[in-house]
Structure formats: structure tokens, C-alpha cells
Design goal:
about 350 residues; 12 helices; about 40% helix
């Protein structure tokens, strides 16, 4: 199904990873397109003002800019995954009515090139990649918006090159993968017993292709990833453009079982070094729990946490108007008060 993965079919565990991604893709493709309302639905087919490619270590990455002629401070969006391309973040295009919004696909997914070299999949190379994009586009002042894995990238980039970063927007932040995995494991305990047993059996046997496991994964995703009855086309497009080798290598076979290079990643101890204002958002039912998001907020010098009620990990899609209003108010406040705004 995915020829790019053939050379990695060397162990049963890798086969299990691929089966899990196939399962997720089937779930996405079986969902009708969502009616998200005008603010989100209109972004499903963005006409970018500018598109192009930037040469980075390992290949070329795609970028698209909406609102390029506006004078507001740009927002660069950093997608999750690793390996989940920008499409599902396109609702942020709504913010391009007064500033440039920059989307890009990290190397290995979406419209960017997909090298077969696993040594490229490191946090430091993704930081370098973002820096290359910023230099190529000649961006000085900027807000960074990172979702899920993108929140790691945003924080690591700030610690690498803080100059010109006006704020960080961290949605569904995953600053500690051990804590993330622990939270997800705890959430599994609230699934019906038959689903818990199906997941445990799949992990014990390596059979991630069973009907029972598919039902269990679907139940978890409907509770904690996206609670919309009908999932939006942009999310479907992200799954179709998924960088599966990147996700497998860095994360693992599923949200429940982390075996990749990020397994021990934890930057919580470095969050106190972030001096700019930080907006953290999560959903009430997010796999990044409100308690965990609050823990990260307390570690930062100048942060604000907003919990989107009735929503989960993709709260920017589930509650688009509330999310956009929150982000817009945050960046406008910072720009109005010249980065000195404090959050209590």
C-alpha cells in the first residue's frame, strides 16, 4: 500500500506500526466530510498567495503563505505527528486577514520530499529545518504556533534562536513524552472493558489488524482526538499525506505504545528558560489532559492556559471560532503591549 515503507519491513514490530496507520487511514476515509461552519470549512481548499520550496538538510520542504501582503507579525504553524502534514491546521487561515500565516510540511511528509534516511529524523534537524525556512523567507519578528509534536519543535526552536520570537502558541502541548504516554494509558482505563482487552491483546500478540482493535482505536479517537461526528476533509488530507516512516521511527506503533526515539523526550526542565509570552490550549477531553497542560504552564515564566470545553486534541477543528478568537486576542494583546504583557 505504501511502497516507501517496504525497506523497513524487517521486523514484526514495524509491520504492526504500518497496520496501525492503515487502520487509522481506513477510519478517516470512512468518515464523511464535516460541516464545521464557514470559519473552518472555507479553509479546506486554501488558495495560497505564495507557495514554494526551501532546500534543507535532507531535501526540499514545501511552504505556503496566506495573507502575505498584510503588515501584521507573521505566524508560522508547526504541525504535529511527527509526520502529520499541515492540512489539518488550515482553519488558522482565518487569521490571515491582518497578518501572514505560514504553513509548511516538515521533511518526510505532505508536499515535501521524503528521503529514506532515518538519521534525518531528529529534533535538532527539525529545528535546523525551521531555521532555514525562516531565513529563506526573511522573517524577523514572528509568532510560532505548534500543535502536539509541533509544540516540542516550537520550544526547542525558541531555545535555539530566541531572537525575534514574539510569542509561542502551544496547542495540545506534548513537552514530556513519558507523561504523554502515561496520560494516554490512564485514559484507556475509561474505555469499556472489551476495548481495553482488545488493545492489550493486540499489543501482546502484535495483531493490530483485528476488528476488535479497530473498534477500540476508533472509540479512543472519538473521545480524545476529534469528537466531531463527521471528521473534516482537512484532517483526512493530513492522514493521506502522512509521513509514516517519520511517525514510526520517532514515535511508535500507536498513541498508546511509544517505542520511537522520542520515548524518553522531556523538555519540562527547560520551560523556565522561555521568556516570551506563551499561550497553551487544550481540549477538555484532550489526550494532553488539562492537568498536564496546567503543569507545563506553571513551569513557564509568562504563560496563559485556555481549556476548550467540549473539545479534545483537535480543538482548533472542533471549536474553530473559540480557538481562533483565543489566538487572535493573544497575539493582538502581545503586539499592543510590546511583549510586556503578563498573565496571571
Amino acid at each position: 500500500m505504501w511502497p516507501i515503507m517496504e525497506r523497513y519491513l524487517q521486523t514484526a514490530h514495524t509491520i504492526a506500526q504500518i497496520r496501525w496507520l492503515q487502520l487509522l487511514e481506513r477510519r478517516m476515509r470512512s468518515s464523511p466530510k464535516a460541516n464545521l461552519g464557514a470559519s473552518a470549512q472555507d479553509t479546506l481548499m486554501i488558495e495560497y498567495d505564495t507557495e514554494g520550496f526551501v532546500e534543507v538538510t535532507g531535501g526540499k520542504i514545501w511552504y505556503g503563505i496566506k495573507g502575505k501582503n498584510y503588515k501584521g507579525i507573521p505566524i508560522i504553524t508547526l504541525h504535529g505527528g511527527p509526520g502529520a502534514p499541515h492540512n489539518y491546521l488550515e482553519s488558522l487561515e482565518t487569521l490571515s486577514d491582518d497578518r501572514p500565516i505560514i504553513f509548511y510540511d516538515q521533511l518526510g511528509c505532505g508536499k515535501s520530499e521524503r528521503p529514506l534516511d532515518n538519521t534525518l529524523w531528529t529534533v535538532s534537524r527539525f529545528v535546523e529545518e525551521l531555521n532555514s525556512l525562516r531565513d529563506c523567507l526573511n522573517i524577523r519578528d514572528v509568532h510560532l504556533m505548534g500543535q502536539s509534536w509541533g509544540s516540542i519543535l516550537a520550544c526547542e526552536y525558541y531555545l535555539f534562536r530566541p531572537y525575534g520570537i514574539r510569542s509561542l502558541i502551544l496547542s495540545g502541548p506534548a513537552m514530556s513524552i513519558p507523561r504523554f504516554e502515561r496520560d494516554v494509558r490512564n485514559l484507556l482505563l475509561y474505555l469499556p472493558k472489551e476495548y481495553q482487552n482488545a488493545i492489550a491483546n493486540a499489543e501482546a500478540t502484535g495483531d493490530y489488524d483485528s476488528v476488535d482493535y479497530e473498534k477500540a482505536v476508533t472509540a479512543f479517537y472519538r473521545r480524545h482526538i476529534c469528537r466531531l461526528d463527521k471528521w473534516p476533509a482537512c484532517l483526512d488530507d493530513t492522514i493521506s499525506g502522512m509521513g509514516k516512516s517519520v511517525y514510526n521511527y520517532m514515535y511508535g506503533p500507536s498513541e498508546f505504545t511509544v517505542t520511537g526515539t522520542l520515548k524518553e523526550y522531556d523538555c519540562t526542565s527547560k520551560l523556565s528558560q522561555i521568556e516570551v509570552p506563551v499561550l497553551l490550549t487544550c481540549g477538555q477531553y484532550d489526550e494532553v489532559t488539562p492537568e498536564t497542560a496546567a503543569h507545563y504552564a506553571r513551569e513557564m515564566q509568562n504563560s496563559k492556559l485556555v481549556v476548550i470545553y467540549g473539545a479534545s486534541h483537535e480543538h482548533h477543528l472542533e471549536k474553530p471560532e473559540e480557538y481562533i478568537q483565543t489566538v487572535r486576542g493573544f497575539v493582538e494583546s502581545i503586539e499592543k503591549h510590546a511583549q510586556t504583557a503578563r498573565f496571571e
